[in-house]
Amino acid sequence: MNNKKMYNLFLISLVFLVYFLVTLGLYVFQRNLLYHPMENNYSGDELTVKIEKVKIATEDNIDLLAWHHVKDNKKYKTILYLHGNAGSLENRIHKINHFNDMNINFLLISWRGFNGNAGKPTEKGLYQDARSAVDWLINQGISEESIIIYGESLGTGVATEIAQNKNFAGVILETPFTSMVSVGKSHYSFFPVSILLKDKYESDKKIKNIKSPILIMHGEVDKLVPFWMGKKLYNLANEPKYSYFSKYDDHMMEYNEKLLNELKKFIDSLN
Question: Closest Cα partner for 121 from 46, 195, 196, 39?
Fold first, then answer.
């Protein structure tokens, strides 16, 4: 074998070795890439809506910090807000402040491993967290039919899971994805994402099982979760279904007058 062939073989072997090591790294550290409990883009928004800090116990004995706001449990529905894959409850202040102007109660929970909670986030664990929050609300005397499930980004995968075959008042999905495999492929197309991924959140296989009225909101210039995913979920969803698709919003949708009007209109239709 001449030197040139040996050199080419060495290069090919090196490329395969690097590819293998990167693939191994993605597999081992994938949950560090997916969940970002320490990321904080809190801009110092002042909390203007009155909340009570409560603890929600999961079935595997983890206490979750949550913020609870009651306007009128008998008169209005209650939003169970399931946040995305990064940050703290404080990062959602700019959103929940607007709930004060709506006819709504809410419970905003933080996931295991977030906001100082014990545990580590996983798909199964987040499903447990959300179901425990539903149970907590029911124990407060709020019926399943009075709960609106609101999922934000990663939280849409959890919302879609727990809303299946239930009698919730409604479901709101903000910047949803079809599945985590599809999101992974859009960012890591050269890797066998479907084989590597542990937490798959397959919303596209579950949304047909949601019988509640549903509102899907997505920005057309979303660079993290491609807009076509939100549009596909809307097309798969059962009636009655509603959409708010913004031409200019990225992944973090702006809570502007248009979005708030659509949100308020949907909520009022459920009360």
Answer: 39
Per-residue pLDDT at 155: 97
Please tell me the distance from the alpha carbon of residue 134 to that of residue 70, in angstroms, as a whole number.
15
Same domain, 11 and 123: no
Residue 162, Cβ neighbours under 10 Å: how many?
23
60 and 107 belong to one structural domain: yes
Instruction: Tally the domains of the chain.
Output: 2
**Cα dihedral: 267, 146, 253, 93 (round 10):** 110
Quick: pLDDT tens for 83-116.
Answer: 999 989 999 999 999 999 999 999 999 999 999 9
Which residues make Cβ contacts (< 8 Å) with residue 24, sequence separation at least 6? none
Domain that holds residue 238: 49-270
Amino acid at 165: N
Structure confidence at residue 34 (pLDDT): 87
Residues 88 and 14 occupy one common structural domain: no
Q: Are residues 142 and 264 in the same domain?
A: yes
| DSSP 8-state symbol, 92 | G
